[in-house]
């Protein structure tokens, strides 16, 4: 109990000293607060981006196989989805012949070609930057899209190259006063005009919500003169058949392309790679944010050195009436730790408030790891940078300290 009371007295004395110079105390803790704020926000935003990507993949359904042009999962790179850029820059140019071949895979319930192009979409009154997507009637099922108004185009529309369009919710909202008002209206993409057949419900995917989907055969011409596709989705209603569909897809495409010309991957493989990438990214973000904490720690050390100089006479008097070097060391060390913890707690509170606001627009999150890291680093900085000025104060000769002016 005496030990506890002694430590309590040390912290009480530290608070008394803080009240002597409130402005200096606040400014000293400010460096740690900004550092903690940076670390927590960077981690929260990193987690938010990971959550966002995970949500988008999961919204497609679990039994999904994706075919990309180029080799983005080669064994030469150690496996996994490790080279997106190089893969998309070259490789196979999928066309309708590939779609027809893949449709022969009996285990595949869905085969969806996707042509995608960023361009200006116009109505009579507005124009917005959106995504033109040439696909088939199965895409709405495999992408888990639901109708907000009107209806989706059909297989007959694809075959007939109908000039029908299905708008994403955000694009419809931007081009017309109300998404329901878009039905039956005309939109323009390039030199083509399309009649709006339906509007999809809001999905939370920026690309999907800002897209205009049309039958892929309708794009053949000025919009897609090469008649090629950016990617191909295959789906199955039976999760036990995902592996079979994947292998048969590879076998089918290898009859026409080299192994290095394309990549066949499962949604779960992409999610696994995303998780690995963001583990590394979060570590880097913590390291970057910790630089601010280091700067804040140096600020605490400077202030504590100045405090030792200002209170030299006080230290001498305390030593003269019986205080040991350990007592003096503990006193200044306690002040340094408290300054760091105060900054850490304030930084944590402010970052929590900011993340709470951000969550209305983006799935950022604060996890237990970031809280523990914040408090541990704050305490560690207080101890590390507080030791040097505290040792200097403890080693002051009592007589010289009393005489100091």
From TrEMBL:
It is found in: Cell membrane. The keyword Ribosomal protein does not apply. It holds the Pfam family MacB_PCD. GO terms for cellular component: plasma membrane. It is a multi-pass membrane protein. It comes from the Bacteria. The chain crosses the membrane at residues 21-49, 284-308, 337-362, 368-388. InterPro entries: ABC3_permease_C, MacB_PCD, Macrolide_Exporter_MacB. GO terms for molecular function: transmembrane transporter activity. Keywords: Cell membrane, Membrane, Transmembrane, Transmembrane helix. Residues 288-398 form the ABC3 transporter permease C-terminal domain. Residues 25-248 form the MacB-like periplasmic core domain. Belongs to the ABC-4 integral membrane protein family. This is Efflux ABC transporter, permease protein.
């Amino acid at each position: 109990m005496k030990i506890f009371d002694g430590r309590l007295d040390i912290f009480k004395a530290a608070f008394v000293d803080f009240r002597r110079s409130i402005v200096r105390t606040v400014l000293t803790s400010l460096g740690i607060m900004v550092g903690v704020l940076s670390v927590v926000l960077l981690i929260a935003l990193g987690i938010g981006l990971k959550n966002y990507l995970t949500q988008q993949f999961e919204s497609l359904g679990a039994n999904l196989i994706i075919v990309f042009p180029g080799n983005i999962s080669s064994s030469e790179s150690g496996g996994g989805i490790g080279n997106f850029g190089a893969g998309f820059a070259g490789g196979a140019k999928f066309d309708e012949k590939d779609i027809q071949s893949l449709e022969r895979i009996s285990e595949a319930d869905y085969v969806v070609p996707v042509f995608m192009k960023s361009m200006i979409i116009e109505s009579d009154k507005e124009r917005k930057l959106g995504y033109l997507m040439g696909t088939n009637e199965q895409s709405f099922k495999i992408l888990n899209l639901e109708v907000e108004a009107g209806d989706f185009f059909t297989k007959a529309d694809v075959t007939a190259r109908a000039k029908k369009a299905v708008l994403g919710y955000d694009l419809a909202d931007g081009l017309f006063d109300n998404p329901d008002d878009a039905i039956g209206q005309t939109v323009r993409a390039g030199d083509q005009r399309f009649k709006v057949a339906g509007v999809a419900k809001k999905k939370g995917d920026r690309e999907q919500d800002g897209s205009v989907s049309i039958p892929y055969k309708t794009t053949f011409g000025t919009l897609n003169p090469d008649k090629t596709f950016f990617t191909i989705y295959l789906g199955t209603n039976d999760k036990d058949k995902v592996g079979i569909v994947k292998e048969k897809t590879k076998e089918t495409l290898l009859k026409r392309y080299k192994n290095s010309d394309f990549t066949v991957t499962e949604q779960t493989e992409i999610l696994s790679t995303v998780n690995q990438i963001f583990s590394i990214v979060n570590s880097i973000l913590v390291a970057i944010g910790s630089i601010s904490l280091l700067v804040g720690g140096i600020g605490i050390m400077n202030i504590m050195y100045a405090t030792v100089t200002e209170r030299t006479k006080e230290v001498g008097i305390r030593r003269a009436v019986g205080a040991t070097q350990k007592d003096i060391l503990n006193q200044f060390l306690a002040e340094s730790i408290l300054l760091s913890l105060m900054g850490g707690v304030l930084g944590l509170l402010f970052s929590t408030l900011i993340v709470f606001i951000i969550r209305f627009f983006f799935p950022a999150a604060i996890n237990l790891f970031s809280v523990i890291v914040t408090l541990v680093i704050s305490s560690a900085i207080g101890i590390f940078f507080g030791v040097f000025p505290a040792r200097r104060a403890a080693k002051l000769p009592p007589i010289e300290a009393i005489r100091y002016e």
